[in-house]
Amino acid sequence: xxxxxxxxxxxxxxxxxxxxxxxxxxxxxxxxxxxxxxxxxxxxxxxxxxxxxxxxxxxxxxxxxxxxxxxxxxxxxxxxxxxxxxxxxxxxxxxxxxxxxxxxxxxxxxxxxxxxxxxxxxxxxxxxxxxxxxxxxxxxxxxxxxxxxxxxxxxxxxxxxxxxxxxxxxxxxxxxxxxxxxxxxxxxxxxxxxxxxxxxxxxxxxxxxxxxxxxxxxxxxxxxxxxxxxxxxxxxxxxxxxxxxxxxxxxxxxxxxxxxxxxxxxxxxxxxxxxxxxxxxxxxxxxxxxxxxxxxxxxxxxxxxxxxxxxxxxxxxxxxxxxxxxxxxxxxxxxxxxxxxxxxxxxxxxxxxxxxxxxxxxxxxxxxxxxxxxxxxxxxxxxxxxxxxxxxxxxxxxxxxxxxxxxxxxxxxxxxxxxxxxxxxxxxxxxxxxxxxx
Length: 438
Hints:
There is one protein chain. The longest helix is centred in the first third of the chain and has 24 residues. The protein is an alpha/beta fold.
Protein backbone atom coordinates (compact mmCIF):
# COMPACT_ATOMS: atom_id res chain seq x y z
CA UNK A 1 0.00 0.00 0.00
CA UNK A 2 2.76 2.45 0.83
CA UNK A 3 4.64 1.78 -2.42
CA UNK A 4 1.52 2.46 -4.49
CA UNK A 5 0.85 5.68 -2.62
CA UNK A 6 4.38 6.98 -3.15
CA UNK A 7 4.14 6.42 -6.89
CA UNK A 8 3.48 9.71 -8.80
CA UNK A 9 0.03 10.33 -10.26
CA UNK A 10 1.42 11.06 -13.75
CA UNK A 11 4.57 9.77 -15.35
CA UNK A 12 7.29 12.09 -16.59
CA UNK A 13 6.32 11.68 -20.22
CA UNK A 14 2.66 12.44 -19.47
CA UNK A 15 3.57 15.53 -17.44
CA UNK A 16 5.92 16.74 -20.16
CA UNK A 17 3.16 16.30 -22.75
CA UNK A 18 0.72 18.33 -20.65
CA UNK A 19 3.26 21.13 -20.26
CA UNK A 20 4.03 21.18 -24.00
CA UNK A 21 0.33 21.29 -24.92
CA UNK A 22 -0.20 24.19 -22.52
CA UNK A 23 2.79 26.05 -23.97
CA UNK A 24 1.55 25.58 -27.53
CA UNK A 25 -1.92 26.75 -26.51
CA UNK A 26 -0.39 29.90 -24.99
CA UNK A 27 1.56 30.60 -28.18
CA UNK A 28 -1.59 30.10 -30.26
CA UNK A 29 -3.57 32.52 -28.05
CA UNK A 30 -0.85 35.18 -28.32
CA UNK A 31 -0.78 34.80 -32.10
CA UNK A 32 -4.58 34.95 -32.35
CA UNK A 33 -4.75 38.07 -30.19
CA UNK A 34 -2.27 39.78 -32.47
CA UNK A 35 -3.78 38.76 -35.79
CA UNK A 36 -7.45 38.99 -34.87
CA UNK A 37 -9.75 41.97 -35.32
CA UNK A 38 -13.08 40.47 -36.30
CA UNK A 39 -14.64 39.26 -39.53
CA UNK A 40 -14.40 41.75 -42.39
CA UNK A 41 -17.49 40.61 -44.31
CA UNK A 42 -19.86 42.44 -41.98
CA UNK A 43 -21.84 44.49 -44.48
CA UNK A 44 -19.65 47.58 -44.13
CA UNK A 45 -18.47 49.89 -46.88
CA UNK A 46 -14.89 48.65 -47.06
CA UNK A 47 -12.74 46.16 -48.97
CA UNK A 48 -14.02 43.23 -46.90
CA UNK A 49 -17.70 44.05 -47.51
CA UNK A 50 -19.51 41.89 -50.06
CA UNK A 51 -22.75 43.86 -49.93
CA UNK A 52 -23.90 46.55 -52.32
CA UNK A 53 -21.82 49.22 -50.57
CA UNK A 54 -18.61 47.17 -50.18
CA UNK A 55 -15.46 47.14 -52.28
CA UNK A 56 -14.63 43.43 -52.35
CA UNK A 57 -15.34 43.32 -56.11
CA UNK A 58 -12.79 46.08 -56.78
CA UNK A 59 -10.10 44.20 -54.86
CA UNK A 60 -10.96 40.94 -56.63
CA UNK A 61 -10.77 42.64 -60.05
CA UNK A 62 -7.34 44.10 -59.25
CA UNK A 63 -6.06 40.76 -57.97
CA UNK A 64 -7.28 39.07 -61.15
CA UNK A 65 -5.25 41.67 -63.06
CA UNK A 66 -2.07 40.59 -61.26
CA UNK A 67 -1.99 43.32 -58.61
CA UNK A 68 -1.11 42.33 -55.04
CA UNK A 69 -3.84 43.68 -52.75
CA UNK A 70 -3.07 44.26 -49.07
CA UNK A 71 -5.88 44.65 -46.55
CA UNK A 72 -4.31 46.83 -43.87
CA UNK A 73 -5.51 46.32 -40.30
CA UNK A 74 -2.80 48.30 -38.52
CA UNK A 75 -1.37 51.81 -38.72
CA UNK A 76 2.05 50.46 -39.64
CA UNK A 77 0.67 48.74 -42.75
CA UNK A 78 -0.52 52.12 -44.08
CA UNK A 79 3.07 53.33 -44.44
CA UNK A 80 4.15 50.95 -47.20
CA UNK A 81 4.76 52.35 -50.71
CA UNK A 82 2.17 52.22 -53.46
CA UNK A 83 -1.42 53.38 -53.73
CA UNK A 84 -3.47 53.52 -50.54
CA UNK A 85 -7.27 53.35 -50.83
CA UNK A 86 -9.22 54.85 -47.91
CA UNK A 87 -12.93 54.04 -47.54
CA UNK A 88 -13.86 55.79 -44.26
CA UNK A 89 -17.44 55.64 -42.95
CA UNK A 90 -19.56 58.77 -42.72
CA UNK A 91 -18.95 58.95 -38.96
CA UNK A 92 -15.14 58.85 -39.22
CA UNK A 93 -13.08 61.65 -37.72
CA UNK A 94 -11.71 64.04 -40.31
CA UNK A 95 -8.56 64.53 -38.25
CA UNK A 96 -7.79 60.80 -38.48
CA UNK A 97 -8.15 60.87 -42.27
CA UNK A 98 -6.01 63.99 -42.54
CA UNK A 99 -3.29 62.43 -40.38
CA UNK A 100 -3.09 59.34 -42.60
CA UNK A 101 -3.06 61.35 -45.83
CA UNK A 102 -0.47 63.82 -44.57
CA UNK A 103 1.83 61.01 -43.41
CA UNK A 104 1.83 59.59 -46.96
CA UNK A 105 2.83 62.78 -48.76
CA UNK A 106 6.30 61.44 -49.46
CA UNK A 107 5.41 57.72 -49.53
CA UNK A 108 2.78 57.25 -52.22
CA UNK A 109 -0.56 58.41 -53.66
CA UNK A 110 -3.85 58.11 -51.79
CA UNK A 111 -7.36 57.54 -53.11
CA UNK A 112 -10.18 58.56 -50.74
CA UNK A 113 -13.73 57.29 -51.39
CA UNK A 114 -16.54 59.19 -49.68
CA UNK A 115 -19.50 57.11 -48.42
CA UNK A 116 -23.09 57.74 -49.48
CA UNK A 117 -25.39 54.81 -48.69
CA UNK A 118 -26.93 53.77 -45.38
CA UNK A 119 -26.75 49.99 -45.65
CA UNK A 120 -28.00 47.33 -43.24
CA UNK A 121 -27.76 43.51 -43.25
CA UNK A 122 -30.39 41.96 -45.49
CA UNK A 123 -31.81 39.75 -42.73
CA UNK A 124 -35.35 39.83 -44.12
CA UNK A 125 -34.28 37.96 -47.26
CA UNK A 126 -34.08 34.20 -46.53
CA UNK A 127 -31.86 33.70 -49.59
CA UNK A 128 -29.37 36.38 -48.54
CA UNK A 129 -25.81 35.29 -47.90
CA UNK A 130 -23.54 36.57 -45.17
CA UNK A 131 -22.54 40.19 -45.76
CA UNK A 132 -25.41 41.03 -48.14
CA UNK A 133 -26.98 44.43 -47.47
CA UNK A 134 -30.02 46.48 -48.33
CA UNK A 135 -30.02 50.25 -48.94
CA UNK A 136 -32.14 52.32 -46.54
CA UNK A 137 -31.19 55.86 -47.58
CA UNK A 138 -28.19 58.13 -47.87
CA UNK A 139 -25.75 59.61 -45.37
CA UNK A 140 -23.08 61.96 -46.81
CA UNK A 141 -19.85 62.29 -44.85
CA UNK A 142 -19.19 65.03 -42.32
CA UNK A 143 -15.42 64.81 -41.94
CA UNK A 144 -14.73 68.00 -40.04
CA UNK A 145 -11.01 68.61 -40.09
CA UNK A 146 -10.32 67.12 -43.53
CA UNK A 147 -10.55 69.47 -46.53
CA UNK A 148 -13.23 71.67 -45.00
CA UNK A 149 -12.97 73.84 -48.11
CA UNK A 150 -14.64 71.13 -50.19
CA UNK A 151 -18.40 70.62 -50.33
CA UNK A 152 -20.13 67.26 -50.83
CA UNK A 153 -23.77 67.11 -51.88
CA UNK A 154 -26.21 65.59 -54.34
CA UNK A 155 -26.71 66.54 -57.97
CA UNK A 156 -29.93 68.34 -58.79
CA UNK A 157 -32.34 66.14 -60.66
CA UNK A 158 -31.55 62.74 -62.12
CA UNK A 159 -27.98 62.46 -63.42
CA UNK A 160 -27.67 60.53 -66.66
CA UNK A 161 -24.71 58.38 -65.68
CA UNK A 162 -21.01 59.26 -65.51
CA UNK A 163 -18.59 60.60 -68.13
CA UNK A 164 -14.82 60.80 -68.31
CA UNK A 165 -12.98 64.06 -68.85
CA UNK A 166 -10.11 65.07 -71.11
CA UNK A 167 -8.47 62.09 -72.76
CA UNK A 168 -11.14 59.76 -71.32
CA UNK A 169 -14.15 61.73 -72.55
CA UNK A 170 -15.20 58.77 -74.71
CA UNK A 171 -15.76 56.70 -71.59
CA UNK A 172 -19.27 56.82 -70.10
CA UNK A 173 -21.72 54.55 -68.35
CA UNK A 174 -24.80 54.41 -66.12
CA UNK A 175 -25.01 54.61 -62.34
CA UNK A 176 -27.02 52.13 -60.23
CA UNK A 177 -29.31 54.88 -58.92
CA UNK A 178 -29.46 58.11 -60.93
CA UNK A 179 -31.78 59.76 -58.39
CA UNK A 180 -29.10 60.12 -55.69
CA UNK A 181 -25.77 61.05 -57.28
CA UNK A 182 -23.14 62.49 -54.95
CA UNK A 183 -20.84 65.21 -56.29
CA UNK A 184 -18.10 67.40 -54.88
CA UNK A 185 -16.98 70.95 -55.43
CA UNK A 186 -14.31 73.29 -54.17
CA UNK A 187 -11.33 75.41 -55.15
CA UNK A 188 -8.53 73.71 -57.06
CA UNK A 189 -10.52 70.52 -57.65
CA UNK A 190 -9.74 69.01 -61.06
CA UNK A 191 -12.46 66.71 -62.45
CA UNK A 192 -11.64 63.16 -63.57
CA UNK A 193 -15.18 61.75 -63.75
CA UNK A 194 -18.23 63.99 -63.96
CA UNK A 195 -21.94 64.10 -64.73
CA UNK A 196 -23.27 65.48 -68.05
CA UNK A 197 -23.98 68.84 -66.41
CA UNK A 198 -20.45 69.15 -64.96
CA UNK A 199 -20.88 67.76 -61.44
CA UNK A 200 -17.59 66.29 -60.24
CA UNK A 201 -17.91 62.60 -59.32
CA UNK A 202 -14.15 62.04 -58.93
CA UNK A 203 -11.21 64.41 -59.08
CA UNK A 204 -8.00 65.51 -57.45
CA UNK A 205 -6.64 68.72 -55.97
CA UNK A 206 -3.94 70.08 -58.24
CA UNK A 207 -2.17 71.81 -55.38
CA UNK A 208 -1.67 68.56 -53.46
CA UNK A 209 0.71 67.00 -55.95
CA UNK A 210 0.67 65.49 -59.39
CA UNK A 211 1.62 62.50 -61.51
CA UNK A 212 1.85 62.08 -65.29
CA UNK A 213 -1.09 59.66 -65.48
CA UNK A 214 -3.53 62.15 -63.96
CA UNK A 215 -2.21 64.95 -66.15
CA UNK A 216 -2.66 62.83 -69.29
CA UNK A 217 -6.18 61.97 -68.05
CA UNK A 218 -7.29 65.61 -68.04
CA UNK A 219 -5.20 66.46 -71.14
CA UNK A 220 -2.77 68.78 -69.36
CA UNK A 221 0.92 68.89 -70.35
CA UNK A 222 3.19 70.40 -67.73
CA UNK A 223 6.49 72.04 -68.67
CA UNK A 224 9.33 69.66 -67.78
CA UNK A 225 11.12 72.40 -65.82
CA UNK A 226 7.96 73.54 -64.06
CA UNK A 227 6.39 76.98 -64.08
CA UNK A 228 9.20 79.54 -63.56
CA UNK A 229 6.73 81.79 -61.77
CA UNK A 230 5.76 78.99 -59.33
CA UNK A 231 9.08 77.44 -58.39
CA UNK A 232 7.83 76.43 -54.94
CA UNK A 233 4.80 74.66 -56.37
CA UNK A 234 7.01 72.77 -58.81
CA UNK A 235 9.12 71.57 -55.90
CA UNK A 236 5.99 70.34 -54.12
CA UNK A 237 4.94 68.39 -57.20
CA UNK A 238 8.34 66.72 -57.30
CA UNK A 239 8.33 65.67 -53.65
CA UNK A 240 4.69 64.85 -52.86
CA UNK A 241 1.96 62.62 -54.24
CA UNK A 242 -1.59 63.69 -55.13
CA UNK A 243 -4.79 62.66 -53.40
CA UNK A 244 -7.64 61.45 -55.60
CA UNK A 245 -11.13 62.02 -54.21
CA UNK A 246 -14.05 59.86 -55.37
CA UNK A 247 -17.26 61.55 -54.28
CA UNK A 248 -19.61 59.02 -55.91
CA UNK A 249 -18.89 55.60 -54.29
CA UNK A 250 -20.95 53.77 -56.93
CA UNK A 251 -18.04 54.31 -59.31
CA UNK A 252 -16.02 51.77 -57.29
CA UNK A 253 -18.34 49.77 -55.03
CA UNK A 254 -19.84 46.33 -55.66
CA UNK A 255 -23.15 47.77 -56.84
CA UNK A 256 -21.54 49.94 -59.49
CA UNK A 257 -19.01 47.33 -60.66
CA UNK A 258 -21.85 45.06 -61.68
CA UNK A 259 -21.68 46.99 -65.00
CA UNK A 260 -18.78 46.26 -67.33
CA UNK A 261 -18.36 49.92 -68.34
CA UNK A 262 -18.04 51.00 -64.71
CA UNK A 263 -15.58 48.20 -63.99
CA UNK A 264 -13.29 49.28 -66.85
CA UNK A 265 -13.51 52.89 -65.73
CA UNK A 266 -12.74 51.93 -62.10
CA UNK A 267 -9.67 49.99 -63.22
CA UNK A 268 -8.43 52.94 -65.27
CA UNK A 269 -9.11 55.39 -62.42
CA UNK A 270 -7.22 53.31 -59.86
CA UNK A 271 -4.25 52.87 -62.18
CA UNK A 272 -4.17 56.59 -62.93
CA UNK A 273 -4.24 57.39 -59.21
CA UNK A 274 -1.30 55.04 -58.72
CA UNK A 275 0.64 56.71 -61.57
CA UNK A 276 1.00 53.48 -63.55
CA UNK A 277 -0.06 49.86 -63.24
CA UNK A 278 0.94 49.20 -59.62
CA UNK A 279 2.45 46.05 -58.17
CA UNK A 280 0.69 46.48 -54.83
CA UNK A 281 -2.38 48.38 -53.63
CA UNK A 282 -3.33 48.74 -49.98
CA UNK A 283 -6.92 49.02 -48.78
CA UNK A 284 -7.38 50.47 -45.31
CA UNK A 285 -9.61 48.76 -42.72
CA UNK A 286 -8.57 50.67 -39.62
CA UNK A 287 -10.91 53.62 -40.21
CA UNK A 288 -13.80 51.14 -40.46
CA UNK A 289 -13.12 49.79 -36.96
CA UNK A 290 -11.45 46.57 -38.13
CA UNK A 291 -7.92 47.34 -37.00
CA UNK A 292 -5.89 44.78 -35.06
CA UNK A 293 -3.07 45.19 -32.60
CA UNK A 294 0.47 44.05 -33.31
CA UNK A 295 1.23 40.36 -33.03
CA UNK A 296 1.99 39.76 -29.36
CA UNK A 297 4.13 36.74 -30.18
CA UNK A 298 6.60 38.71 -32.29
CA UNK A 299 6.34 41.72 -30.00
CA UNK A 300 7.61 39.59 -27.09
CA UNK A 301 10.86 38.98 -28.96
CA UNK A 302 11.52 42.61 -29.82
CA UNK A 303 13.27 45.20 -27.62
CA UNK A 304 12.53 46.26 -24.95
CA UNK A 305 10.42 43.18 -24.17
CA UNK A 306 13.08 40.70 -25.29
CA UNK A 307 14.94 40.87 -21.96
CA UNK A 308 11.79 40.12 -19.96
CA UNK A 309 10.90 37.25 -22.29
CA UNK A 310 14.35 35.66 -21.87
CA UNK A 311 14.14 35.97 -18.06
CA UNK A 312 10.69 34.37 -18.09
CA UNK A 313 11.89 31.50 -20.27
CA UNK A 314 14.86 30.83 -17.97
CA UNK A 315 12.59 30.90 -14.91
CA UNK A 316 10.20 28.45 -16.55
CA UNK A 317 13.08 26.16 -17.49
CA UNK A 318 14.42 26.22 -13.91
CA UNK A 319 10.98 25.50 -12.44
CA UNK A 320 10.45 22.64 -14.87
CA UNK A 321 13.87 21.15 -14.11
CA UNK A 322 13.19 21.24 -10.36
CA UNK A 323 9.77 19.68 -10.80
CA UNK A 324 11.28 16.66 -12.58
CA UNK A 325 13.89 16.06 -9.86
CA UNK A 326 12.81 14.99 -6.38
CA UNK A 327 14.28 16.89 -3.44
CA UNK A 328 13.80 16.05 0.24
CA UNK A 329 12.46 12.82 1.78
CA UNK A 330 9.37 11.25 0.23
CA UNK A 331 6.09 11.97 1.94
CA UNK A 332 4.84 9.10 4.12
CA UNK A 333 1.54 7.76 2.93
CA UNK A 334 -1.40 7.97 5.36
CA UNK A 335 -4.57 5.90 5.70
CA UNK A 336 -7.23 6.70 3.18
CA UNK A 337 -9.93 6.28 5.88
CA UNK A 338 -8.67 7.69 9.23
CA UNK A 339 -9.74 6.08 12.52
CA UNK A 340 -12.11 7.73 15.03
CA UNK A 341 -15.81 8.17 15.83
CA UNK A 342 -16.10 11.53 14.09
CA UNK A 343 -14.80 10.13 10.82
CA UNK A 344 -17.07 7.11 11.14
CA UNK A 345 -20.13 9.30 11.69
CA UNK A 346 -19.17 11.59 8.82
CA UNK A 347 -18.68 8.67 6.44
CA UNK A 348 -21.97 7.09 7.51
CA UNK A 349 -23.83 10.38 7.01
CA UNK A 350 -22.28 10.78 3.59
CA UNK A 351 -23.35 7.26 2.65
CA UNK A 352 -26.94 7.92 3.73
CA UNK A 353 -27.04 11.24 1.87
CA UNK A 354 -25.68 9.68 -1.31
CA UNK A 355 -28.13 6.79 -1.10
CA UNK A 356 -31.05 9.25 -0.82
CA UNK A 357 -32.52 7.48 2.23
CA UNK A 358 -32.46 10.34 4.72
CA UNK A 359 -36.12 9.83 5.58
CA UNK A 360 -35.35 6.41 7.05
CA UNK A 361 -33.42 7.93 9.95
CA UNK A 362 -36.26 10.25 11.03
CA UNK A 363 -37.88 7.72 13.40
CA UNK A 364 -34.62 6.39 14.91
CA UNK A 365 -33.43 9.98 15.49
CA UNK A 366 -36.67 10.81 17.43
CA UNK A 367 -36.30 7.63 19.51
CA UNK A 368 -32.65 8.41 20.26
CA UNK A 369 -33.61 11.93 21.33
CA UNK A 370 -36.24 10.52 23.75
CA UNK A 371 -33.75 8.12 25.32
CA UNK A 372 -31.22 10.91 25.80
CA UNK A 373 -33.83 13.00 27.63
CA UNK A 374 -34.81 10.02 29.83
CA UNK A 375 -31.19 9.74 30.88
CA UNK A 376 -30.63 13.48 31.30
CA UNK A 377 -33.89 14.21 33.19
CA UNK A 378 -33.79 11.08 35.40
CA UNK A 379 -37.11 9.67 34.17
CA UNK A 380 -38.06 6.03 34.83
CA UNK A 381 -36.74 3.58 32.25
CA UNK A 382 -38.65 0.74 30.58
CA UNK A 383 -41.95 2.60 30.25
CA UNK A 384 -43.87 2.68 26.93
CA UNK A 385 -42.66 5.40 24.51
CA UNK A 386 -46.00 7.24 24.63
CA UNK A 387 -45.93 7.49 28.46
CA UNK A 388 -42.31 8.66 28.41
CA UNK A 389 -43.02 11.39 25.87
CA UNK A 390 -46.11 12.48 27.87
CA UNK A 391 -43.91 12.79 30.96
CA UNK A 392 -41.46 14.92 28.96
CA UNK A 393 -44.38 17.12 27.85
CA UNK A 394 -45.49 17.69 31.46
CA UNK A 395 -41.96 18.62 32.48
CA UNK A 396 -41.75 20.98 29.48
CA UNK A 397 -45.06 22.60 30.52
CA UNK A 398 -43.73 23.36 33.98
CA UNK A 399 -40.49 24.87 32.61
CA UNK A 400 -41.95 26.76 29.63
CA UNK A 401 -45.62 26.89 28.79
CA UNK A 402 -45.13 28.23 25.23
CA UNK A 403 -44.14 26.48 22.00
CA UNK A 404 -45.02 23.05 20.60
CA UNK A 405 -44.72 20.03 22.87
CA UNK A 406 -41.97 17.45 22.57
CA UNK A 407 -44.33 14.63 21.53
CA UNK A 408 -45.75 16.84 18.76
CA UNK A 409 -42.29 17.61 17.37
CA UNK A 410 -41.29 13.93 17.56
CA UNK A 411 -44.46 12.85 15.66
CA UNK A 412 -43.81 15.49 12.96
CA UNK A 413 -40.28 14.19 12.52
CA UNK A 414 -41.47 10.59 12.19
CA UNK A 415 -43.98 11.59 9.47
CA UNK A 416 -41.40 13.59 7.44
CA UNK A 417 -40.59 12.17 3.99
CA UNK A 418 -38.70 14.91 2.16
CA UNK A 419 -35.06 15.49 3.00
CA UNK A 420 -35.64 19.18 3.70
CA UNK A 421 -38.49 18.38 6.12
CA UNK A 422 -36.40 15.78 7.93
CA UNK A 423 -33.53 18.22 8.45
CA UNK A 424 -35.80 21.09 9.54
CA UNK A 425 -37.85 19.03 12.03
CA UNK A 426 -34.83 17.25 13.43
CA UNK A 427 -33.21 20.63 14.07
CA UNK A 428 -36.36 21.83 15.93
CA UNK A 429 -36.35 18.68 18.07
CA UNK A 430 -32.67 19.16 18.85
CA UNK A 431 -33.24 22.78 19.96
CA UNK A 432 -35.98 21.69 22.34
CA UNK A 433 -33.73 18.95 23.71
CA UNK A 434 -31.01 21.50 24.45
CA UNK A 435 -33.51 23.81 26.19
CA UNK A 436 -34.74 20.99 28.45
CA UNK A 437 -31.24 19.86 29.44
CA UNK A 438 -29.68 23.32 29.85
